[in-house]
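Q: Convert this sequence to structure tokens.
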Amino acid sequence: MNASGTDIRYRASVACAVVAGAFCVIVCAGLIQNYFHSDVSDPLDSEQFVALKAKLQAYPDDEQLKSEVRRMDLELRREYFRSQAFGVRGGWLLLGGIVVLLVSVGAAVGCRKTISAPAPAGDQELAEVRAGTFARWSVAAMGLVILGGATALTFITPTEGFPTAIKHVEKPPSLVVHFPSDEEIGRNWPRFRGPGGLGISAYTNVPANWNGKTGEGILWKTPVPLPGKNSPVVWGNRIFLTGATKDKRQVYCFDADSGELLWQRDVTNVPGSVAKPPVVMEDTGYAAPTVVADGQRAYAIFANGDLICFDFAGERLWAMNLGLPVNMYGHSTSLAMWRNLLLVKFDQGGEGEGKSEIIALDGLTGREVWSKPRPVPESWSSPIVINAGGRAQIITCGNPWVISYNPADGAELWRAKCLDGDVAPCPIFAGGMVFAVNTVAVLAAIKPDGVGDVTKTHIAWTAIDGLPDICSPVSDGKLLWLMETYGTLTCYDAQTGKTVWEKDLDMEFNASPVLVGEQIYLTGIDGVTIIIEAAREYKEIARTDLGEKVYATPAFMDGRIYIRSEKNLFCISDAKR
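A:
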């Protein structure tokens, strides 16, 4: 062949080699992407599918949920086999591309080595025409191969409307996230200090007289197996408590009508839990935080950082350990809920150590939804969730900040610098304002519609009398009451911050006051409950004696009061068994 024809064939071979090489790179990239995209060896190990099955266990009669499980099962299996087919056929296409690439490279090298004598002009022109035609057909053929390969990869195992990757299957649009309504929460006593953590009873038909020694007004009394300073939580006809010692932790469920211990569960084999027990003060103990319940499940946390979830039948759904808390008194912050999220305020360590955080977990699975660091040291105050300023807010207290977070994503909404010392009393929301207090600090009334640092702009008033170190305040929006551990009860005007009256009850208190209609129930450590008018003048209505020490805040339900004493759980009721 003449030099010109050889040169054209050489160029055609190079072109084919380039196209084949590009094809190989494309196919290879697709195979790599498919490998990393399909990152589960078992299609049914998908995190979303596992969570959906767990949800079906909690709601076995939900037909919509069953349909979603079946749909996702088919979806994941089809995606798995599509991925496998992609790998096999893509491998063959890659092999074919490599063969074409090698042949083209070989042809180019052969043409490069060919040395031909010059041909007559006419023959040279004919050779150039033929070589050009060959080159065009070669490139076109290779293009058809690429097009065919791409088409094959696109239509391997059609998904018929299903998503083309497991990672796209996050939450089916029709899947309903179950959580109790505000009305359901209001009818129960689901957390420390009842609905919203405000210490306000939804029921006013509760007893005012009982006697633990004679049994008058006591519907039933049941021993609690292990000690604990946590308060009763009641949902429907279920009461939840926890108990713990240095070496043992338990969760209890009692029948609210009979007092029968329906189930007790040992908290063992918690992932990440360590054998070393925490150092705690006797006043705190190993089971100070109060349970939270959502109508389907009960959640408990202990002084060693163990966090666990049981359904109402006592089946363990999930458990984890948050780490051994660095806390000189022992962890005592109670849990809270917002919609389907379990809220854990985990303050620990010293000032500036950066160990504190607030965490939101999916209640059904225990999966972390978000977590945020907190600029405070160890604290003992429990969070509350409010609706104010046109938004839901988590209100937290710790030295020196009252901080509001968006419960949906944990974003900080505002903060106010007004606390000091070892912060234990919980905040409350009443009369349109957040109230936060601690001994050696102030009682602060904060308007909750600000943004950023609102210390100078949104603190309506402060006061310094009667500041408690344990008991949380209570308010009807007009008046506000503070109870000191050693029995000084102080009443404030909630709108102005002026002291209305002060009364020394000559008793010690750990339980927080509870507002019941127009009365306030004050339960002392010696088991005596004083009932007073929620008014601008101090007036005692009744005084009753349980006959046992009480450190926990009572729970108030329809016609009943549930009180945890040092060793027993009592149901106070005017009704006869």
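Residues 182-573 form a domain with the Methylamine Dehydrogenase; Chain H fold (CATH 2.130.10.10).
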